[in-house]
Design brief:
alpha/beta; six-stranded mixed β-sheet; 20 strands; globular
């Protein structure tokens, strides 16, 4: 079935770590494809913006100066997948963050879930964490039970939980002590927080109080685990909130710079970003925990539509080697999703297409760290 020609420009962009690819459908049906370096500060500030500018200028026959915001009156929509979050995680170039967690559980995410994928290994590697400071929040909710005799468990003060459980506030949030701790973090230059309170999945009010105080004091970003991934298991919920706090500020900075290059800050144009689960989301809802596989997910959707044969149903393997990372996936008639995955050593609890990513791309370099390694490698070659 023929696709009707658009009346305005439609742009689909893959902003990778090394190259940016721009696909444009022009008024009248003409298709344009362009590839640019993602980072080329000597010639342009942002590759997707530059690609859009060049195509508009060439197709419309009028100049679009580099130093002025682009006119969006000729643009119908922009859809983009980006590896900004993926590469920030792989290269550990995210935001400095602190973890705020219920008092008594400061080491919970460092301990992890004690999983041992290789059960006979004598050396057990502890899970890597993204935060550099921990603040214990003096608060506690407990699940309500008629026979509970814990101190502070007043059965007359029962709260209905959002998942059906009833809870009791054993200790309200000590906001005065928390204020002092947060001010100390600000003096250390930390501007992003991950808030992970024990039972916030069932009653998020304590996390919301913490988040409101942090915003009042001037923190630029706060990821509440009850908003990022409201689920009962605090360890994966905590990892996901930390990843969100670590990556979302990077994404926000990129999006702010991208919008600043257009008139009206793109408010009059539909702009959608690819999420890790293969769906599209409005720019304002694009967050770090849902953006890890944004670019690779677009590749899966693309080859699933264009290469899979519904008649013979032969599974298709996707292999995407970029300049920074390599992504491998499989499609056999339906999208394969996982709900807990580890990327670059960080576990994230969020719907994602089942994609394996390694930090080795076409631009990766191999180094010999010692003469012995070099000799061993030559021995294996012989």
């Amino acid at each position: 079935m023929a696709v009707p020609s658009p009346s305005k420009f439609q742009f689909a962009i893959d902003r990778g770590g090394t190259f940016t690819d721009i696909f444009a459908r022009c008024p009248g049906g003409r298709v344009r494809v362009m590839k640019l370096l993602s980072e080329d500060p000597a010639n342009y500030r942002d590759a997707p913006t530059e690609g859009i500018r060049r195509i508009l200028q060439e197709e419309c026959g009028i100049p679009f100066p580099c130093d002025r915001p682009l006119d969006t009156s000729q643009i119908e929509w922009i859809r983009m997948g980006t590896t900004v979050a993926t590469n920030a995680l792989l290269e550990r170039k995210g935001e400095r963050i602190a973890l705020l967690i219920t008092k008594g559980f400061r080491d919970l995410l460092h301990i992890g879930n004690q999983a041992r994928p290789r059960i006979f290994d004598l050396e057990v590697a502890m899970p890597e964490v993204l935060y550099e400071e921990v603040v214990e929040v003096d608060e506690r909710l407990i699940l309500h039970h008629a026979s509970c005799q814990l101190p502070g468990a007043d059965p007359s003060q029962v709260l209905p939980g959002v998942v059906g459980d009833s809870l009791v506030v054993q200790r309200p949030v000590d906001l005065a002590a928390l204020r002092r701790d947060l001010q100390r973090l600000l003096t250390q230059g930390i501007r992003s927080l991950a808030v992970v309170l024990l039972h916030s999945y069932a009653w998020p009010a304590h996390e919301q109080q913490v988040g409101a105080l942090a915003q009042e004091l001037g923190f630029q970003h706060v990821s509440l685990s009850s908003s990022v991934m409201p689920m009962v298991r605090v360890v994966p919920r905590g990892y996901t909130a930390c990843a969100d706090a670590y990556l979302t500020p990077c994404i926000r900075r990129y999006l702010d710079g991208f919008c600043a290059s257009f008139t009206q800050q793109l408010q009059d144009t539909q702009v959608l970003f690819m999420r890790s689960d293969g769906g599209l989301t409005p720019m304002g809802q694009f967050s770090g925990s849902r953006a890890i596989l944004s670019g690779p997910a677009g590749g899966v959707v693309g080859y699933a539509i264009t290469t899979y044969n519904q008649e013979d149903r032969q599974p298709v393997i996707g292999f995407d080697m970029g300049g920074t990372s390599t992504d491998v996936s499989r499609y056999a008639g339906e999208y394969e999703h996982v709900f807990e995955a580890t990327t670059a050593g960080i576990s994230i609890q969020a719907p994602q297409l089942d994609i394996n990513t390694v930090a080795a791309g076409g631009g990766s370099m191999l180094f010999f760290r010692s003469q012995k390694e070099k000799e061993d490698l030559w021995h294996l070659r012989d």
